[in-house]
Design brief:
The complex is a heterodimer of chains A (about 375) and B (about 200).
Chain A (H helix, E strand, L loop, with lengths): L2 H24 L7 H11 L2 H21 L7 H6 L8 H40 L11 E6 L6 E4 L5 E4 L4 E6 L4 E13 L8 E5 L2 E5 L3 E7 L7 E8 L1 E5 L3 H10 L13 E4 L2 E6 L6 E4 L2 H5 L5 E8 H9 L6 E3 L2 H4 L2 E7 L3 H11 L2 E5 L4 E5 L2 H6 L1
Parallel strand pairs in A: 5-6, 15-18
Antiparallel strand pairs in A: 1-4, 2-3, 3-5, 4-5, 5-8, 6-7, 7-10, 8-9, 9-12, 10-11, 12-13, 14-16, 17-18
Helix pairs in contact in A: 1-3
Chain B lengths: L22 H27 L2 H17 L9 H25 L1 H8 L6 H19 L3 H12 L4 H8 L3 H24 L6
Classes of the chains: A alpha+beta (about 375), B mainly alpha (about 200).
């Protein structure tokens, strides 16, 4: 008997062999009835049957060992699996791989037509639209912004990802040699695609944050005098922070916006995972601290978390999630330390709670919310 | 599974027991009985054990027990009784044979004191690798089913309930899995070198 025939015969024999194996393994042989024993004797008297049974038993035992180092299928894969046992698995595997190949092939024409279309448009622009284009056609500029309580996910052409927090404005300037991001206001988290020959730099306030394949968060709060402060938190990898280099500064000037030119020359600092740096627009008061990474990234999940943070630091961030601007009426209020969580969409509730916990008054006007110290007289009387 | 084999019509006859036999008469009478029914008995046992040689041995054993019973006059249905003895022996024999023929490889493995040869070890390893590779390519649900049955030891009924399919469909998945794994392993062991 050749191999082919053997396999064909096996396909009918295996279920019976498995039935017997199951019977023998689940029940003691002593408990089998005389009739069952006779049935076995009849079936096993054909040498190929017995041979199949022995092979099956061997593989059955080995399967237990083999399963120990085999990956568990995911629930999703199990749920979408359509195989029902009606055809042999080898046939099914062959069918599905050819199906997949067909599906991939059928996708090609669509993909090609889109690619062709893009090529056509680009070609047309290159030929007739040179006047529409900025001098360097490889320089791609794109601006992104968010409103109050709004987050936005952006994937850049190089694969880098940005999450914009609420009330955030930034623009991306990509050239062949540089990836520049101007963070004008708000907070953004960057997940940078590694490319050593094309540095990724975020310009925020008086500092430039340069990363090579890393994740970090930059928050730029503008105070009333538009000086503001910038907080950078590194979640993975390393970033370098220093004053912007002249070339970058010039670009910064060209693209304009409410930002100052840094005159000071502070020493660049290297930040590693878990570190946080805070500086103001002039590049002064540079402070490196250990960051609470969980708290620093909580905003992406709709929470602002603080531990012993003065209200003057808390309020600008909360402001970005508030419909009405919140203002601190006096410096005393700004120094009050806050520990706790502000939930997105629950700013009014948070303010009411704040009022009961601190010697403050929250005044809600149609235009703005003002937080001020409680008048001393009242607190003394009450 | 087939029904119990009915005793053939001709085997249901009785021996004339009207007059109590003397020892000599008894022997002659029963010799005749045994000779008369020897072929029928062997055929009967053969239908259970499916082996001519084993059937002959079992019938011999049945005769020995038959005569050891002492005073056979108390037995009214001698012929039927002989067949019953033969069947009991055949059943015991089959139990032993199942252990021998179906589980022989394990027995020999356990009793041999020789350590396996390097080639045996190599083959076993190859087989295990081929098996793991094959398991990884099983359709996900079938793979899951195999893990549940083989690792957790659940029944096909329970497997069917867990997967939301009928018991026989659950069993079918395992049958197909084993069919696939057997193919994979025998391909590997038939041509282990060609595949590398």
């Amino acid at each position: 008997m050749n191999r082919k025939q053997r396999i064909v015969e096996d396909t009918e024999v295996i279920p019976v062999a498995l039935w017997w194996l199951d019977r023998f393994l689940r029940d003691d042989i002593a408990r089998l009835s005389a009739e069952e024993l006779a049935d076995w004797a009849e079936w096993a008297s054909h040498e190929p049957h017995l041979e199949c049974f022995r092979r099956l038993k061997r593989v059955w035992h080995q399967t237990h060992t083999a399963l120990g180092s085999v990956s568990k299928p995911s629930a999703a894969d199990v749920a979408t699996d359509e195989y029902d046992g009606s055809v042999p698995i080898s046939d099914w595997v062959a069918q599905t791989s050819s199906r997949r190949r067909r599906r991939q092939l059928s996708r090609w024409p669509k993909f090609l037509s889109i690619a062709a279309c893009i090529t056509l448009v680009t070609a047309a622009l290159m030929k007739y639209g040179s006047k529409l284009w900025s001098p360097d056609p490889s320089d791609q500029v794109q601006a992104y912004s968010t409103g109050p309580s709004e987050h936005r996910f952006v994937t850049l052409p190089d694969g880098s990802k940005i999450i914009l927090g609420a009330r955030t404005e930034l623009s991306t300037h990509y050239t062949a040699t540089r990836r520049l991001i101007f963070l004008d206001r708000g907070e953004a988290s960057f997940d940078v695609a590694h490319n050593a020959r094309r540095p990724f730099t975020v310009l925020a306030g008086g500092g430039a944050i340069t990363a090579l394949g890393t994740q970090f968060d930059v928050r730029r709060e503008l105070d009333s005098s538009d000086v503001g402060r910038v907080t950078v938190t590194v979640s993975t990898g390393t970033v370098e922070i220093g004053p912007p280099q002249e070339t970058i500064s010039e670009v910064a000037v060209d693209t304009s916006g409410p930002r100052q030119r840094s005159q000071s020359k502070w020493t660049p600092a290297r930040l590693v995972k878990g570190q946080q740096i805070t500086y103001d627009s002039a590049g002064t008061r540079v402070m490196i601290t250990t960051a609470d990474l969980e708290a620093a990234s909580a905003w992406k999940e709709g929470r602002l978390e603080y531990r012993h943070t003065p209200l003057k630091v808390v309020i600008p961030s909360v402001n970005r999630y508030s419909e009405k601007p919140i203002e601190l009426a006096d410096p005393e209020v700004g120094e009050l330390p806050y520990s706790g969580t502000v939930f997105e969409g629950q700013v009014p509730e948070w303010l009411r709670a704040l009022e009961t916990a601190y010697p403050i008054e929250v005044i809600d006007t149609p235009e703005r919310i003002v937080i001020q110290s409680k008048p001393r007289q009242e607190s003394e009387h009450g | 599974m087939s029904e119990p084999k009915p005793v053939p019509e001709r085997d249901r006859g009785r021996l004339p027991d009207s007059e109590p036999p003397t020892n000599e008469r008894w022997n002659a009478k029963y010799e005749r009985l045994l000779l008369e029914h020897n072929d029928a008995l062997i055929n009967y046992v053969y239908s259970w054990v499916r082996s001519r040689a084993d059937a002959t041995d079992i019938v011999q054993e049945a005769y020995v027990r038959f005569f050891r019973l002492g005073d056979p006059t108390t037995i009214s249905h001698l012929r039927a009784f002989l067949f019953k003895i033969a069947k009991n022996i055949a059943t015991d024999f089959l139990r032993k044979r199942i252990v021998r023929e179906a589980f022989a490889d394990e027995e020999s493995l356990r009793s041999s004191n020789e350590s396996p040869s390097p080639e045996q070890i190599w083959l076993a390893k190859e087989e295990l690798t081929a098996l793991q590779r094959a398991i990884e390519t099983l359709p996900p649900r079938t793979k899951m089913a195999l893990m549940l049955v083989r690792e957790d030891g659940i029944s096909y009924e329970e497997l069917g309930q867990r997967l939301g399919i009928k018991t026989h469909s659950a069993r079918r998945l395992i049958e197909r899995a084993m069919e696939y794994l057997l193919e994979a392993v025998s391909e590997e062991t038939d041509n282990p070198r060609r595949r590398r």
